[in-house]
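Board work, copied verbatim: Alpha/beta hydrolase
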Amino acid sequence: MGWNPFRRPPLLHVAGDVGTGPAVVLIHGIASSSVTWTNLVPLLRSEYRCISIDLLGFGGSPAPADAEYTLKEHVEALAHTIKRLKLREPFVLIGHSMGGLIAPRYAARNPRRVRRLVLVSPPIYVSPTALSDDRDRTVQDLYLRAYRFLRENEDFTLRNAAIVEKLLPIPKAMDINAATWNAFVKSLEHTIESQTTISDLAALRVPVEIVYGTLDEFASPGGIRIAERLRGVTVTRVRASDHLIGKRLARAVAAAVPDDA
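↓ predict structure ↓
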């Protein structure tokens, strides 16, 4: 039985709610949890209320057996959870990795709720044929081929994910295992590989800051350059930082949060 579009979306797990001041809502990426924000929350909590939410299928959030983990499902669950928080004022929304694809869709659908959008290491992908630069097309095509391989080779992916996880500086920053496998492969196919990020960003009327490291293993330079040309979008490139939010990247993200609102 497939996902019922008429039922109420599940409530997600609010993994952290610390600090006082204007609200900042943080959503992590694929195959991770709110531990993503280990280096960022300490930089913000003295001036902001930091609310960390685990995405559908990850961390402490529910993983419905009939979910297809489409962008629509992720956004509806996020919207239902944020509504339950009863935030009185527009907030800053920060999304990392896949969360950086979900956040623009939420903001586009809820324009009065978000006052500023910060996308950290977002894998902004478009069809390789839509890119004019040969190198950009090659990079984009390689990513999509690699993701398809990971989805179709469970034993290989789980075995190597366990090895990589032990090497990461932030414990549990990547959590791909038998329990999260369904959410991982479906989110990869139905959200990351089937994203609408460029059109979502084009529809926004709030400031957008994209922050990513020059060593980001999943960044698509062509996609980010397209996003950078859109009205209201600013890009900050952080030297010697990769996809995870290490201390250097965390400082750049914290600097992107304040505005004049």
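The first helix runs from residue 41 to 44.
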